[in-house]
Amino acid sequence: MNEKAFKIFVDFDGTITKQDVGELLVNTFGKSEQIKEIIRLWMEEKITSPESWIQMLATMSNFSIAALEEMLKDITVDPFFNEFVLYCKNNNYQVRVLSDGFDIYINRILRREGLLDLEVYSNKVTLDPDNMLIPSFPYGDEECKFCGNCKRNHLLVNSADEDFIVYIGDGYSDKCPIQYCDFIFAKGSLLRFCEMNRISYFPFEDFSNVISRIDQLRRKRNLKKKHQAELKRKEVFKQG
Known about the structure:
Strand content: 15-25%
Mean pLDDT: 94
Structural class: alpha/beta
CATH class: Alpha Beta
């Protein structure tokens, strides 16, 4: 059996973790009513993701690293995610984490789970002298101002023509990158987006479902790439 090259990209908030940690962060330390309005404007595409994060973080007060670490004690990770990472390592499948959230909590959670060796692309924050979180967006795309972290660019840069591209996600920031992927694992609002737009996907509840399905895919004799995704990938490369 020919070994297939899967390149796997995984969302963080609500996918690896059971909770949306970024949302919990701003609601724990920020003003919830203002945050609801900011999120509404973002989902209606009236403001960009960087604008929404800047505005939400600006509502925060009483933040400290100690308080953050106390909050993170209640965050749980998908019970099968470590098993999934091990499965991928054993089969030489590269796994990368793509998040529109922030390194300040992602790195702490991955360290706790013994997963700091995972390659992660996310937005970043620094703490100013007044304990305010100052965001930065090192992986934005000049032509696409909507996302803070351009997940599409990461999956295109980190895959080759012979690779089968897999994306696993649950949310609104995943709707762009999935259009360039051969296989999509979706739950939550991403699942609803796929259904509304007639995008083929595999539903999943946890990473045990993902392991089983990828194992089935790798055993298929004539596994085919998604034609529409291939065309979209070629379009981007033609544009340079």
